[in-house]
């Protein structure tokens, strides 16, 4: 897609075109047992019947598990480290959110249907809800998982600042809701395990947030090879630099500063808040942490999937 096409798409999908009265905290309803926001449920058939193309690349995550980070890593790799090209449009334009639905704007499916190939696509759907066309077309998927406690903290603050998300309530009530999977996109446990069990059935690269934080260059190399790209050492270093938390926080094409304030309440929290590993220790009480550990040990037993909560 060239610069002019991106500009037209950006204008059509501009979030500041949404009237403030159209944004409110949408309630959750169930589809196939998974809680999603009501506007998504109302048009679920469009998502379910979405037609993937063989050269689509899907980036899948549980919400607030490093989605935007991986999007920028992928785009900079595909753009050979050229920051100017990667800044051609905000993240949500370069990577349309497949199941996204909000009043007065084209849905994610509508945007993607009109988008020329190759398409870069974002989703938070658990594996079992991903349209089967992705598997029929043998598409590549990059999945990023983040440890449960940090993920819960990040999702909580995002729910507080995003006025379209359900009201998270108090931290105490949110901890329990998250643990029971009664939040948008369902159970963290089911999500990360479902994708983990699917990774050997399809072309899925399963990445861990904590691994990327520990050694960005090592993990970016994995993504580069998965995408079939060869980059010089110099270009690789540029990708590492431009996808650091600080660089992305200062980049208007990745920090969601283009989203109007009536939708994102930045006085409550920034979209890119901390990006740390281990921030959960500043939020979880000892009893909350022990309750999580108990459920974690039960749910994750025998999966072979291991997370680090501190580095």
From TrEMBL:
Enzyme class, spelled out: transferase
Keywords: Cytoplasm, Transferase
Single GO molecular function: sulfotransferase activity
Residue ranges annotated for the Sulfotransferase domain, each copy included: 54-304
Localisation: Cytoplasm
Annotated Gene Ontology cellular component terms: cytoplasm
Superkingdom of origin: Eukaryota
Pfam families xref list: Sulfotransfer_1
Keyword Iron-sulfur in record: no
Main location: cytoplasm
EC number: 2.8.2.-
Protein family membership: Belongs to the sulfotransferase 1 family.
Protein name, UniProt field: Sulfotransferase
Species assigned in the record: Leptobrachium leishanense (Leishan spiny toad)
Native organism taxonomy: Eukaryota, Metazoa, Chordata, Craniata, Vertebrata
